[in-house]
């Protein structure tokens, strides 16, 4: 065990929420809200196309400004292209929303399949929500943590997929959007809380201490 402790300053809670919320807002909540608004006023096709256009503009804007495109935005937009094609072809809201429900099972599978890679999928996605310093991400215990917590998130996606599928099969589109969104984000919030607790516990024995917020400047005099 090391004879000294390394203090790692994580973003403040407010900064963490903003940093994590922006990709989720861009990739999920805004397209969903845009779909519902256009769906209720202009029909199913308009909602489907509007949601895809938003995601395309979000990526295009970042590319033009030469900003990093979050991995989660690339992933959700790619899957949204497939959803849009199926939705326009079948004109079925059930099949359109069945795909993101099935994506929960796909994500769970990808998290498990990438466990053997140098950087598991979860480690790549985590950088979009909370950028860890290199001293932490390159630590062997941290790499082991990402592999273990990937199993937790695989379970989160599996549970979310099963519950969302049940709601989709029994509720109207409006009720499905409301219930599934609230339930999914509540489940994700629990997963984040458990992950942060697990991170602190895993790295504490390696001489790392975590503190929320930026370092306080030293006062002179």
Automatic annotation (TrEMBL):
Keywords: Membrane, Transmembrane, Transmembrane helix. It comes from the Bacteria. GO terms for cellular component: membrane. Signal peptide: none annotated. It comes from Pseudonocardia oroxyli. This is Intracellular septation protein A. The keyword Protein biosynthesis does not apply. InterPro entries: YciB.
């Amino acid at each position: 065990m090391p004879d000294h402790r390394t203090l790692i300053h994580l973003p403040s809670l407010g900064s963490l929420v903003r940093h994590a919320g922006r990709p989720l807002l861009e990739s999920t909540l805004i397209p969903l809200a845009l779909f519902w608004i256009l769906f209720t006023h202009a029909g199913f096709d308009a909602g489907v196309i509007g949601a895809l256009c938003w995601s395309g503009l979000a990526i295009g804007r970042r590319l033009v400004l030469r900003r990093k495109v979050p991995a989660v935005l690339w992933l959700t937009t790619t899957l949204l292209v497939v959803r849009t094609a199926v939705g326009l072809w079948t004109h079925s809201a059930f099949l359109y929303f069945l795909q993101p429900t099935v994506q929960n099972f796909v994500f769970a599978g990808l998290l498990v399949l990438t466990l053997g890679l140098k950087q598991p999928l979860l480690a790549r996605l985590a950088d979009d929500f909370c950028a860890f310093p290199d001293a932490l991400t390159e630590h062997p215990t941290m790499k082991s943590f990402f592999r273990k917590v990937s199993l937790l998130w695989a379970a989160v996606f599996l549970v979310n997929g099963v519950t969302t599928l049940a709601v989709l099969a029994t509720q109207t589109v409006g009720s499905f959007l409301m219930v599934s969104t609230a339930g999914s984000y509540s489940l994700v919030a629990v997963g984040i809380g458990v992950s942060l607790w697990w991170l602190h516990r895993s790295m504490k024995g390696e001489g790392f201490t975590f503190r929320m917020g930026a370092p306080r400047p030293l006062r002179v005099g």
